[in-house]
Amino acid sequence: MKLALFPLSAHLLPGGIMPLRIFEPRYQRMVAEAQTREFALCMLDPRQPEAMRNMYPIATRVRIVDFDLLPDGLLGITVLGVARARITDLWQESDGLRVGEVEPLPPWQTSRLNADQHALAKALQDVFEDYPEYAALYQRPEWDDASWVAQRWLEVLPIPVEQKQWLMAAENNQPALSLLSGLLVASH
Fold it and tell me: Where does residue 114 rank: exposed (0-12), middle (13-18), buried (19+ CB within 10 A)?
């Protein structure tokens, strides 16, 4: 599958919501073509010496769920993470928009949090309370869904990008939940 690629300095995972400001012509075109050619958010890799390939391989296919003209005249869009994907090849179009051949990764199975994992949801609720603008993006938080909770934590947790990429590439949520549980225990 071919997707336009939008590199950022942040991760978004399935079920995640992110507002974006679109100002470069190549990304304005990407948004205009979103009905016919989907796009994915990917994480910049500053260590990669070749500027055209400076992206980590695990990306998230997204869907535009809202758009608005911002007070500064720029286009604002809100995207919803739909599915994980692995970038297998990429190239650049004439206006600089990067496009990648991607292979879909299977979704993490939805499951309820175990009794010993409820603290992860409670701690994430505390983050939502501390950052009401972030919380406002989520009209229906899925506090009981282990994958949803793990993916929101991976978006906000300040851990090395390589570690996030490894966790995002995992076939299920267990490595992420194990790491998160360990971090929560260590912080208390």
Answer: exposed
Tens digit of each residue's pLDDT (9 = 90 or more) over 32-79: 999 888 999 999 887 876 766 788 999 999 999 999 988 888 899 999
Topology of domain 2-104, per CATH? 2.30.130
CATH level 3 topology of 115-187: LON domain-like fold (1.10.4060)
pLDDT, one tens digit per residue, over 136-170 is 999 999 999 999 999 999 999 999 999 999 999 99
H or E element in which residue 164 lies: helix 161-169
Residue intervals in the chain for CATH 2.30.130.40: 2-104
Residue ranges matching CATH 1.10.4060 in the chain: 115-187
DSSP-derived letter for residue 112 is B
Cα–Cα distance between 69 and 32 in angstroms, integer? 14
Q: Please provide the distance, in angstroms rounded to a whole number, between the alpha carbons at the two ends of the chain.
A: 44
Report the distance separating Cα 12 and Cα 151, nearest Å: 8
- What the block records as the tokens of 10 is 């942040």
The DSSP element (H or E) to which 102 belongs, if any, is strand 98-104
| DSSP H or E segment with residue 59 | strand 55-69
Nearest C-alpha neighbor of 28 from the set 68, 71, 65, 74: 74
